[in-house]
Design brief:
182 residues, elongated, homodimer, DNA-binding, mainly alpha
Chain lengths: 182, 182
DNA sequence: GGGCGCATGTAATGAGTTACATGATTGA
DNA sequence: TCAATCATGTAACTCATTACATGCGCCC
């Protein structure tokens, strides 16, 4: 949602004033694993925050480099940050999962094929989990809680797909049942 | 994503041809817990599926009731369904979680308040979990896998927030630490 | 005749992305 | 001088939602 992106930008600018490019770099390098925010969208949002009075922009130029707009949070923005943060921490927004739709219709495929596809998904999840674990050591400890959050959800996803694979296996042809363990 | 909504509509129409209102009712009553699809959006998507040749519409009127457009899947639509289903089952799309953003800045609140807010969220999650469990018995067995999916993710969410609450508790004032157990 | 249910939409808006445009500096 | 990096944006588009519009039938 929009509010979370607003919270993110305000929170980052609160810690340190920045220009757009710098902010984008930071997000791309440090937060790509938990937020999805395109560069132009960030510029667009910064502009909006500015129009709403939550941040102030000041044009600056350093030597002969291209001019940059430095954004810093305003007192109204600080209030907004507090409000959004409290809201975010206290609320729970039920998610929708794309996986659910497929599962509703899954039984319309032959068990063998269905199994094959679900095993592919399983591999994809495991691969993603491995990269998350790697981040665990490479990123600063401030990210630990976030990474653990992702790992827990990934484990939930694995548990679920494993159950599905197990129940489907009992309906599949004997050859197909064993492919994963070979 | 769009593709999953397309898959959903095609899958439902594949099982049984329907008119828009009927489809909307079905989704609202049987699937509101796992998909979020507004009525006008459904009409809009049906129209789009029609223009793309995946479904055919036929105007029908029963007695004197308002006329309705009955949609049924075409052979191209059937192919599309197969393709989307296979794609959905085999792929894993990493999620982004709104909760992550709040946690990144959580330590900027006083531990007492942070705790209070996280406990509120915990309650909200538990409440939602209870309604999910209730669905478990009230909905047809075809939904079992989907509900279990949600329950697993909800449990992950609870485990996570409990850990956060536990670590935060050690920094909070003694009175605040115990509020939940009273 | 008044309100509810059936049935379909449109118009306006918002949120976000993609692809492109611009122009300067730096280093090979 | 050519490519890469720094830095900012716009224009066009898609997707989805909200709020509203319409009109008939049915039942009290």
């Amino acid at each position: 949602m929009t509010m979370d992106r607003q919270l993110l930008l305000l929170g980052l600018l609160r810690a340190q004033e920045m220009h757009g490019y710098q902010l984008n770099e930071f997000i791309d390098e440090q937060m790509n694993f938990c937020v999805d925010l395109k560069r132009s969208t960030a510029y667009y949002l910064l502009d909006k925050l500015c129009r709403d009075g939550y941040v102030a922009e000041e044009v600056e130029r350093e030597g002969n480099r291209p001019e940059r707009k430095v954004y810093r949070i305003t007192p109204t923005g600080e209030e907004r940050f507090q409000e959004l943060l409290r809201q975010n921490l206290a609320a729970y927004e039920p998610s929708v999962y794309a996986e659910d739709i497929g599962i509703i219709f899954e039984h319309q495929l032959a068990p063998d094929e269905s199994l094959r596809l679900m095993r592919m998904r399983r591999e994809a999840i495991l691969a993603h989990r491995a990269t998350m674990e790697a981040l665990h050591v490479s990123l600063p400890p401030s990210h630990t809680a976030v990474i653990e959050h992702h790992l827990l959800h990934l484990d939930a996803e694995i548990t679920w797909i494993d159950r599905l694979i197990a129940t489907r296996s009992s309906h599949a042809s004997p050859q197909a049942t064993d492919t994963a363990s070979s």
